[in-house]
Design goal:
It is built from eight helices and four strands. It has 285 residues and is mainly alpha-helical. The longest helix is centred in the middle third of the chain and has 81 residues. The protein has two domains: 165 residues, Helix Hairpins; 103 residues, no CATH class. It has a four-stranded mixed beta sheet. A hairpin with a 2-residue loop joins strand 1 and strand 2.
Length: 285
């Protein structure tokens, strides 16, 4: 198979793999779209349970207060009836005290019961509102889950089509090259194959060493960018080609290293000259 055919296959495979990555990511992220609504519903249910427990405690307390009120009323009525049978002042005073104590207990219990009944009513209204809200949230969540399930099914169907297309394109591509392309596409936002204009990589816009640019121009093997690792192919520029590519200017990787060392030496010399000037100025002063 000619290298141009291989590159055409790789470009087609790149489009398929990039779409697959997007679809697979969407399928993986789909459940996360429901997490916020599920957390809200969970909080509502937890709050409802806690409030319902408080509601039950208030209800039980009201029942206890009613029992206490009945006892206080019964004691008061009993003492009032006993007034008709007393014969001494001491008995009168004792009964009168019992009646006052029972009345005070009765009033205190009735006051507590009224307060608890108001609280009970407020809790009852809150629970009804929360029940309605929870029901609404559950219905919306179920509806969203059903819609999301349809979307996931559609994405899975699309993914199956992409897998079929991948199987059709893959024959003739070296498995190692395909593996590398898959990794490059995942790490480079879906772009694993780029052209070079002259000696500049379209992927990272770095100036390539002449040896790499020439290998790409020859086109007899797969060449990877030494900077961004993408697969490179040569893009014909026609008349303007020489404006992009100049072998004398491109250099090599070793030239890049030599340039960095020279640049560091120049910086050192500049710093030394600057220090000498400062010393001279201090001496003149």
């Amino acid at each position: 198979m000619m290298m141009t055919e291989v590159l055409d296959k790789l470009k087609a495979l790149q489009d398929i793999l990039a779409q697959k990555n997007v679809v697979e990511a969407s399928i993986g992220d789909a459940p996360k779209l429901l997490s916020t609504q599920e957390e809200l519903l969970a909080r509502l249910k937890k709050g409802y349970i806690e409030k319902n427990e408080q509601y039950e405690k208030v209800r039980q307390h009201i029942a206890e207060l009613k029992s206490q009120l009945f006892e206080a009323e019964t004691a008061r009525e009993k003492s009032e009836k006993a007034m008709d049978t007393i014969s001494t002042q001491r008995e009168y005073e004792a009964l009168d005290k019992e009646i006052r104590d029972a009345s005070e207990r009765e009033q205190a219990v009735r006051k507590d019961m009224q307060r608890e009944e108001r609280s009970f009513q407020d809790l009852d209204e809150d629970l009804k509102r929360e029940e309605a809200l929870i029901k609404q949230q559950e219905e919306e969540l179920d509806e969203r889950k059903a819609k999301l399930a349809e979307e996931i099914d559609a994405m899975k169907a699309e993914l199956a089509e992409l897998n079929s297309a991948e199987d059709e394109v893959s024959p003739g591509i070296n498995p190692e090259t395909k593996f590398k392309l898959e990794r490059i596409i995942k790490s480079k936002q879906g772009v694993g194959i780029v052209a070079i204009h002259g000696n500049v990589c379209d992927g990272c816009h770095m100036i390539l060493p002449a040896q790499f640019a020439n290998e790409v121009r020859i086109g007899d093997k797969i060449v990877y960018c030494p900077y961004c690792s993408r697969i490179l192919y040569y893009l014909e520029n026609g008349e303007g080609e020489h404006d992009y590519f100049n072998e004398d200017d491109a250099g090599s990787l070793s030239d890049l290293d030599d340039f960095m060392e020279e640049d560091e030496d120049d910086d050192t010399e500049d710093e030394a000259d600057s220090d000498s000037e400062d010393e001279k100025m201090d001496y003149e002063e």
